[in-house]
Amino acid sequence: MAGTLACDKCHSLVYSRELDTISAEAKSLESQGKYLEAREQWMHALPLLPKSAKQAEWIEERAKQLNALAAKQQSQGETKWAKRVGPLGVLGAILLKGKTILLALFKLKFLLSFASFIAIYWALWGPIFGIGFAAMILIHELGHYIDVQRRGLPAEAPVFIPGLMAYVKWDAMGVPLDVRAEVSLAGPLAGFIAALACAGYFAYSGNQLFAALARAGAWLNVLNLIPVWAFDGGSATNALSKVERGIVLGCSAVLWLLTGEVVFFLVGAGFVYRLFTHDLPAAPSPKTTAYYIVVLALLAGVMWAMPGAGVGIPR
Length: 315
Ligand SMILES: [Zn+2]
Known about the structure:
Layout: H1 2-31, H2 35-45, H3 54-76, H4 81-85, H5 87-105, H6 108-125, H7 127-150, E1 159-161, E2 165-167, H8 177-205, H9 208-223, H10 232-237, H11 242-259, H12 262-276, H13 286-305
Helix pairs in contact: 1-2, 2-3, 3-5, 5-7, 6-7, 7-8, 7-9, 8-9, 8-13, 9-13, 11-12, 11-13
This protein binds zinc ion.
């Protein structure tokens, strides 16, 4: 097992420079509308990737798209391909960034902070919980990271402050409030996916530790949605109007009553406070409101479905 891991690492490290050059070249050609040349470039990358790699799949798909684009271009002198590719382009960007993320993860600062982070939870609750909990926090941070990257905003690999928290640094200057809110909510959304995976494994195996992980992960992500300070909820709420804050407050109260989880009361209390702070945005953001509520409800669902109560830390 250790061997496979090491080889995978070598693979991405050895070829990463070549792949970087190829993808930069291809993307530059794409942006100039030279689709067939771009397709040629992408095909050069294929032999460097393992057959099973997501990137290989993506490149094959991309090659087809570029063919179609070139045909379209011939018939109508198309220039703005990005708008047409739409969601596929976004998905492609995320897959491409996968490689960037992998490389960033190897940065020493990240490794050190992640190792000490695991060590603390390991010492408190044992190895599987320690590694699992740290991995869930990592996935939360990657949610922010990927969302920042796919918007083309600069971000660094997550940094872990042992035992406390993790964060992703990114440049929010000049970014509209609702976009910042979406980046903030992407973390708890990714955290939900991680908690759901643990819950799924618990349902499959009956292993209580994964129920505890799912519950603890969901709990931590709801905690992060308290709309104050540097919590993700704090910055997301900056985009919400007074009425919208009231709506999320109401939803938090309902979720508190349904699940009996005090953390939803804390989210609600935060929103009571944010009803009276003088930081209302210029325009309301129904999209942010819906996103906020959906993420809260999804996390509540995981907590509701898992056995036990409280933060779910095994006793
Ligand atoms: Zn976060």
